[in-house]
Design brief:
The protein has about 130 residues and is of the alpha+beta class. About 65% of the residues lie in helices and about 15% in strands. The radius of gyration is 20 Å and the shape is elongated. The chain starts with a helix and ends with a helix.
Length: about 130
């Protein structure tokens, strides 16, 4: 699990912006949506999420507002601004480029290992 966490850290911002495209959410709701939409593969703690939300607000990509939830509880909701939509698309493009690069490297490594084993892996696939 710890190995997956290093990959997650760079994607929480992207996933948060993706979730907020569907509508305003509060922090816990964002963490639950990420978990639900990834079928439990990606989990984000609120402690990891809130510094990212604060940074996105500071940069003008999100705005926040408070809304009552019961008699004493106030929830902070986050709203995706137009600048945030643009930033999301920039992050998504960057993510897709990195993903493509990783896939290319891994496919070359697979091919190299097949050559090194004398094609044994190739024959097993056919």
């Amino acid at each position: 699990m710890a190995k997956r966490n290093s990959f997650k850290k760079g994607t929480i911002e992207l996933l948060t912006l993706a979730i907020l495209q569907d509508g305003d959410c509060y922090g816990y709701q964002i963490t639950q949506s990420i978990c639900d939409k990834s079928n439990g593969i990606i989990t984000v703690t609120e402690g990891a999420l809130y510094p990212i939300l604060y940074r996105l607000v500071d940069k003008g990509y999100l705005t926040d507002y408070k809304k009552p939830a019961g008699k004493r509880l106030m929830r902070v909701y986050y709203h995706l601004e137009e600048a945030g939509v643009i930033y999301f698309h920039e992050l998504l493009e960057e993510y897709n480029q990195v993903k493509l690069g990783v896939e290319l490297i891994l496919s070359q490594d697979q091919y190299s290992s097949e050559i090194a084993t004398g094609g044994e892996n190739i024959e097993q696939k056919n």
